[in-house]
Amino acid sequence: MFKKVLVANRGEIAVRIIRTLKEMGIQTVAIYSTADKNSLHVQVADEAVCVGGPKPADSYINMKNVISAAVLTGSEAIHPGYGFLSENDLFAEMVGEVGIKWIGPRPETIDLMGNKEHARKEMREAGVPVIPGSLGYIHNVDEAREVANEIGYPVLLKAAAGGGGKGMRFIFKDEELEENFTNAQAEAKLNYGDEHMYIEKVMLDCRHIEMQVIRDQKGNVVCLPERNCSLQRRNQKVMEESPAASVTPAMRADMIEVVTKAVNAIDYENTGTIEFLQDQEGNFYFMEMNTRIQVEHPVTEMVTGLDLVRLQVQVAAGEELPLRQEDVQINGHAVEMRLTAEKPEANFAPSAGKVDFVFLPTGGPGVRIDSALYNGDMIQPFYDSMIAKLIAHDDTREEAIAKLARIVDETSVVGVSTSQNFQLALLEDDGVLNDRFTTKYLEEHFLPGWEASQEKAAEVAE
After folding, report:
1. Residues 183-194: pLDDT tens digits?
2. How many CB atoms lie within 10 A of CB 55?
3. Radius of gyration of the chain (CA)
4. Whole-number Å distance between alpha carbons of 277 and 333
5. Which of 265, 301, 411, 449 has the fewest CB atoms found within 10 Å of its own CB?
6. Mean confidence (pLDDT) of the chain
7. CB under 8 Å to 438, separation ≥6 — which residues?
8. What would the pLDDT profile of 58-108 be if each residue is shown by its tens digit?
9. What distance in Å separates the CA atoms of residue 445 and residue 434, rounded to the nearest whole number?
């Protein structure tokens, strides 16, 4: 087992990883930008190294500086968390070249699954159902039009190297194709340095269902209960839950078989998440694979009682998984909300500044708060707006949602704007409460009504 691990991240995920490492008796090293010198992840780590200025390019994604920090502190492994360098195959390769263990899949696997078109090809060959679409890269508008006419509109144009909605466009008719293709390709090149594109058939009224999997170096595979991540805004998840109400035990068994087949086909190592779209008939189609720990991993931990970061570290150290598939049990239901420093009523504009006061209700059974927020903390404008993950667990979905609503209601953050009121309204929505929502529900059904109510409330206040 490692004696010292560097955590190449910041905020709540860095704090969460450091806590598990400490429980395992492993020395921890934090990295930080000059803007983050007083952050909680710096304070809870055994050591901390400044790796550059406030902008991520100068610090958290400065590969040379991060590796130098690991070498100088004698770290034996690097845990990347999620975001930043977590799915950068070049960085993972560089880490290995200096004799440090990467807590994640091999660089070549990250590269393979990070390119969405290559991933689709690999999954097709492994016998995994894949969303209909192009069989290779789309280089120009003419090729895009040919594929779109073949599979039928609407289609989804996506950056092959993308993620998080960048370089992505929904196209509903031929007249929209040329301008959208040009803009999406330019956006892809700007964000990823890669202008390769591909096209998928838009599957309407679908759910976003994903399954976390972990595979050790000896080929043992354990699939964990699926998560429903269908409540999204601009392709960013807003609420996640496990298990998915739309997934029957038979469907789950099929997913486990498919996911196991997929990770064995690419000789996967460590943890990852395979994301599917589920149609109205219950059929699943591969969308992409994330080769890292997920933001929403706490709901999986709540319903299984497992520490996924501990499992990641054990697998990276060469240990066999301490459990088998038959050992995985689903206990109750868990729901997670992402509290963000934003102004939802102002088109979710980011809110930065000093946090004068914060209260996060951590008490009571089945309550979990993952956050790095504290009184006097500074919300920086350079990083993601998520400031806490609020997680509730109970025997049933209804009870878990009611508990989460109570947690959100009790939360108090003074000094910056947050998404709290938006989240409360979402947890009271009939479509959410009755599990009648798909990936477009939030934007097409919930948000228009909520925004109208906010405008009316503002008029009354005036």
Report:
1. 999 998 888 888
2. 15
3. 22
4. 21
5. 449
6. 95
7. 205, 206, 207, 230
8. 999 999 999 999 999 999 999 999 999 999 999 999 999 999 999 999 999
9. 14
Question: How many angstroms separate the CA atoms of 339 and 238, rounded?
Answer: 9
Query: What is the C-alpha to C-alpha distance for residues 306 and 325, in angstroms, rounded to an integer?
Result: 13
Q: In this predicted model, what pLDDT tens digit does every residue of 362-397 receive, in sequence order?
A: 989 999 999 999 999 999 999 999 999 999 999 999
Domains and their CATH numbers in the chain: 4-103 (3.40.50.20), 132-201 (3.30.1490.20), 207-457 (3.30.470.20)
- Output the DSSP codes for 14-47: HHHHHHHHHHTT-EEEEEEEGGGTT-HHHHHSSE
Burial class (CB in 10 A: 0-12, 13-18, 19+), 345: middle
* pTM summary value: 0.90
- Residue 209 vs residues 59, 100, 312, 372, 434: alpha-carbon distances, Å: 34, 34, 22, 28, 17
Residue 286 has, within 13 A of its CA and on its CB side, a CA count of 28
Cα dist from 210 to 268, 324, 365, whole Å? 17, 20, 26
Distance CA(42)–CA(175), nearest Å, equals: 52
Whole-number Å distance between alpha carbons of 177 and 162: 19
pLDDT of residue 333 exceeding 90? yes
Q: Is the peptide bond before 243 cis (omega within 30 degrees of 0)?
A: yes
Q: What is the 3-state secondary structure (H, E, C) of 372-394?
A: CCCCCCEECCCCCCEEEEEEEEE
CA angle 191, 192, 193 (to 5 degrees): 105
- Cα separations (Å) of 447 from 423, 434, 450? 11, 17, 5
118-150 pLDDT, tens digit each: 898 999 999 999 988 888 888 899 999 999 999
Alpha-carbon span 119 to 234, nearest angstrom? 23
d(CA 128, CA 409): 42
Structure tokens at 61: 């994604």
pLDDT score at 459: 79
